Amino acid sequence: MIGRCTHVVDCRETSGMGKGGSLAQRGTFAECGTDVCAVAMSPGRRHITKPVCEITFGLREANVLTSTVVLNAGAGVPHDAPASGGTLFGITDKEINQLNNFKLLVIHLGGVANHIIYKARLILRNVNKPCIIICESPVDCEDFAKIGVKTSKVMPADEDIKTQGVIKDIVTGVIRGETISQEKLDEIIRKVKLALGDA
């Protein structure tokens, strides 16, 4: 491919937060094709959505049409996670419908291993799509399979399966609020293309 490729992005249900280049607010649905959707947690003091923007731009530059959803209730932990308390994590019917339109989800989660696996389970319980998990903690497919999440490498016993969707791959070491390294971005692009079947 020579030169630039233009992507039309239908963006932002609400105005940006003005922090670090006007970050997308909760409830944002930025549509750009139906291949990949990057799912971000709600922005806040601990949840800085910065790497999601960089991941989205990186994927679009690699010619992967990538939309973005910023969850309304993306902070906290699901009600069925052990030691849950404080803010409750959830997903709305509207968000489920939006996510079901894509071939692949790229879900950006945080730095607490226990939160990551239960948040992923809640999303994949409601959305029957393959996904790639991006997070800071060094989690693996075993961690997800233990709580009934289907993964491409480790499958829970039939009676223990608690999700419709399946984790295709995991990228760890991506820190919230920090600029993502080119090495990690390349890894994400490679794994996304592999999951879409056009690597």
Question: SSE string, helix = H, strand = E?
Answer: EEHEHEHEHEEH
Low-confidence segments: 6-22
Order of strands across the widest beta sheet? 1-3-2-4-5-7-6
Note the overall shape: globular
Total strand count, please? 7
- Percent strand equals 15-25%
Radius of gyration: 16 Å
| Total helical segments | 5
* Average pLDDT, all residues: 84
Head-to-tail CA distance between termini? 16 Å
Class derived from helix and strand content: alpha/beta
Report on this model:
The protein is α/β, with parallel strands linked by helices. It is built from five helices and seven strands. The chain has helices spanning 50-61, 93-99, 113-126, 141-146, 182-196, and strands at residues 29-30, 36-40, 66-70, 104-108, 130-134, 150-151, 166-171. It has a seven-stranded mixed sheet, with helices on both faces. Strand 2, helix 1 (50-61) and strand 3 form a beta-alpha-beta unit. The longest helix has 15 residues, at 182-196. It is globular, with a radius of gyration of 16 Å. Residues 6-22 have low confidence and may be disordered.
